[in-house]
Amino acid sequence: MSQKFQQFRGLCEQNLNPDANPRPTAQDLAGFWDLLQLSIEDISMKFDELYHLKANSWQLVETPEKRKEEKKPPPPVPKKPAKSKPAVSRDKASDAGDKQRQEARKRLLAAKRAASVRQNSATESADSIEIYVPEAQTRL
Question: Which residues form a coiled coil (predicted)?
Answer without folding.
Answer: none
